[in-house]
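Re: the request from the purification team.
They wanted to know what the chain is likely to look like in 3D before they choose a buffer screen. I agreed to run a prediction and write the result into the notebook, where they can find it.
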Amino acid sequence: MVTDSALRRRLRPFFRALAADGMILFMLAVVVIEATVLVLWHRRTGHGPAPVELLTFLGAGGSLMVSMLFLRRIDRHPLPYAFALLSALGFHAVHVMLLWGR
């Protein structure tokens, strides 16, 4: 049987990897690839999410991921962190307005 402390020791490298800057950059790259593929798919077939709604949704999530990167450096540079959060709010507000306009 695995004790609680043994489980924590085993999972510690996994949690460190998830919190690393490289993981955040990898997730941002996946979001950019996803957006590119979905916009191209919509342009080619006319099916799938509308590009404006898709980009506002992914822009909000991407801005939050960028803010996680800047959060580690907030002591040196607080303005990029604040700008990333404000851009996430802006993307989200536009996305909600688009959804309410349906």
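For the purification team: The radius of gyration is 18 Å.
Please add any questions underneath this entry.
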